[in-house]
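User: Please predict the structure of the protein below. I'd like the answer in structure-token form so I can feed it into my own downstream comparison script.

Assistant: Understood. Taking the following sequence of 463 residues as input:
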Amino acid sequence: MAAQPVPEGARRHRVVVVGGGFGGMRVVRGLRRAPVDVTVIDRQNFSLFQPLVYQVATGALSDAEVAPPLRWIFRHQPNARVVLAEATGFDLDARRITLGRLANGAPAEAVPYDTLVVAGGSEYSYFGHPEWEAHAPQLKSLDGALDIRTRVLGAFEAAEVEEDPGRRAAWLTFVVVGGGPTGVEMAGQIAELGRDTLKRDFRSADTRTARVLLVEAADRLLGAFPESLSASAERALVKLGVTPLVGHMVVDVTAADVAIRGAGGEVERVPARTAVWAAGVTAAPVAATLAQAAGVEVDRAGRIPVGADLTVAGHPEVFALGDMVTVHNRGGDALPLPGLAPVAIQEGNYAAKLIAARAHGRSRRDFRYRDKGNMATIGRSKAVADIKGVHVSGFPAWSLWLGVHLAYLIGFQNRLLVLLRWSISFFTHGRGARRIENWQPRAAPAAERDRDDEFSPAGRSYL
């Protein structure tokens, strides 16, 4: 169903975009020359470049370099307006969206629209154990990355002043949950941090003895990659000092340890004071809110179904895209799209073109994802890439990874700053963003401290 062209002199078409991530941002930028007025609604005032968040968490980059302000991004787009607020409800019949948490403290506000685009993204799922997040923050947000950086760097500081060998070993043990690209990249960075960057900075603690456990429930790391590249990535991680635990599952996380169940069903508690969560993706809560308003069901991952044109059933004026949706073709079959930034980018570009076409009384063909490949970095000069069936690893893949991520970064200034930081880090083995923020000592409760003493370094099977 195509919208009718707007008569000359009539009110301009109102487009409301919820979410300023990859998909939402592409919609707004794609409509910069369209005869529409765009309102961007986001509960944070920046657009996070998610693929590089793990580098913020390990001190390689500062937060400002991967999170440019939305108002700065759209400063040259007169038809775009940014509102700092949270979408709390949808009235699809009246074509209104309810906003909460407005900057002026107003309790709520209703914003009308002619076309609605919801691109709320996703977050990590703790498999029914939300209490684990307090001890294992996730890498899906900037706050989470800064929290992880404080915990990782703080663990090395704690090891420096800890005199008990067993407790020092626990401070120098890091558990990364999830063997996808984010988990692999994070594990490699922590290993490099201990074995390379910090090795001369401490006097009592030997940071080179840091253990990094990478826990993955599947039978191999990087399950979306070809098996040869998965094996190559695992070998590179082992050389860095990471211990991959494939076929293992985390069953409990506390302030003092992580319980890991092996392939045979045995459970071992590993004393580890720092855990990072990078597993189990689920849709953002706004997907369920939109689904309830539209009268449709979400799937097990909380994703809302959309048609081949990315619109919600029964509401051709409502688009949903990114990690929070499952796209179905005309026959009703779900398309197997990966939860990657390129998918959201292409969906955002498609939605913008379709909205602009409708403004002129035209239509477009169904959305079609063009897979340009997949890549993941492991450490210094180490990466794997699958580019249209061509498998690349090592330094060539790492160089390709650097170039692609620089190209996707927003703004010349950020590209230049990140390139400069990477260059300095490459030649000096240093990291320029190692400030510990909001540091609070993390002494374990007495009961957990006693339990630490039960484990001696010689008795650990994951050494």
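That's the full token string. The chain has two domains: 13-43+85-124+282-359, 130-279+374-435.
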